[in-house]
Amino acid sequence: MPYTPLPSPRILLGPGPSCVTPRVLEALGREPIGYLDPELFTLLGELRSGLRKLFGTSNDFTLPLTGTGMAGMESCLVNLIEPGDSVVIGVAGFFGTRMVEISRRLGAEVTVIEGEWGRILEPEQFEKALKNLSKVKLVGCVHAETSTGIKQPLKAIGKLAHDHGALFLVDAVTSLGGLPVNLDDAGADAAYSATQKCVGAPPGLAPISVSDRAWKAVDARKGAVPNWYYDWKLLRAYFDDAHLYHHTVPVNLYYALNQALAETMEEGMENRFSRHEQVSKLLTDGLNEIGIYPFAQEGYRLPTLNAVIIPADVQDEMAVRKRLLFEYGLEIGGGLGHLKGKIWRIGTMGASATPRNVLLLLAALKSILHN
């Protein structure tokens, strides 16, 4: 069978990456500069300031880590956890389980707060676990669970963590830039995200933000951080005053991120959040009309990642996604873990979150499902 090129450019409406604007693509193509060039550190100052606004924090150590969102997760855990530490992780989806796996590999004693996938975790679950543990180093949970489309409230969990002397770690991979994160208000001591979703930049950078309280825990470590590449002390020596060489940073990704942040500020953060809400509603209303309904708990559904139940009469959901991609250039995602084959995950993130894209997807789905 001859090869048939897929439609180009793709319209990315999956769980990430999302589309980027022409201005971001143009910035990506700039001539690179060296990792010790003075212009680079001016650029980094702008990036760090912009990321603080997105994170809703005054944390000085806020920066674009080299790597994807998983690099952010691993970086936070490897710096904050030592062997034997007691850690409490909330799991109500695929990415909570990854936090557990990494914590266990680091030698932590992990208490898992289990929740039903598609529903939020309740503060009472954390309170019960914390009362039964003598000394907890860290409490972690996912703000925007990409596998289920759930928006997890943070503030009550952050307060419980602090009341029990623990640090609070937040996964903001699918929320940063698409809905308010407000780390300081939530009491988060560390958080990580990714640039390829709501932030509107290409994959390859993982914004992180770390509080002074978390830094005290790092300074009090008994042993060295086992991961050299993501050791925050080494990174701080490069990003801050001394600028001691650590690694060759991806400057072209910095250019792209800087443009994405500039576009965010031009749009206005509240306007940006509102756009994500409105486009998500347009999508879910249109899906309801063709018999496709939300999976996630009502009242806690993400405007950035819409998890929907695959209709019972769809015999081969992968074939539907393949037709969307090959015939229309539209990408949506399937389920993860035990939700594979049960839900579709449709992203309305960043530059992908437009009425035009949603209406194209709805028209394509109607054509495929009704023919």
Features of the shown structure:
371 residues, alpha/beta, Aspartate Aminotransferase, domain 1, Aspartate Aminotransferase, domain 2, 2 domains, 7-stranded mixed beta sheet, 3-stranded antiparallel beta sheet, 13 helices, 15% strand
Description:
This protein has 371 residues and is an alpha/beta fold. 41% of the residues lie in helices and 15% in strands. The chain is built from 13 helices and 14 strands. It is globular. The mean pLDDT is 97.
Strand order across the largest sheet: 2-10-9-8-5-3-4
Average pLDDT over all residues: 97
* Morphology call: globular
Q: Briefly note the CATH topology name of the largest domain.
A: Aspartate Aminotransferase, domain 2
Number of helices: 13
Please tell me the CATH architecture of the largest domain by its name: 3-Layer(aba) Sandwich
CATH top level of the largest domain is Alpha Beta
Percent range for helical residues? Answer: 40-55%
Q: How far is the N terminus from the C terminus?
A: 24 Å
Count of extended strands: 14
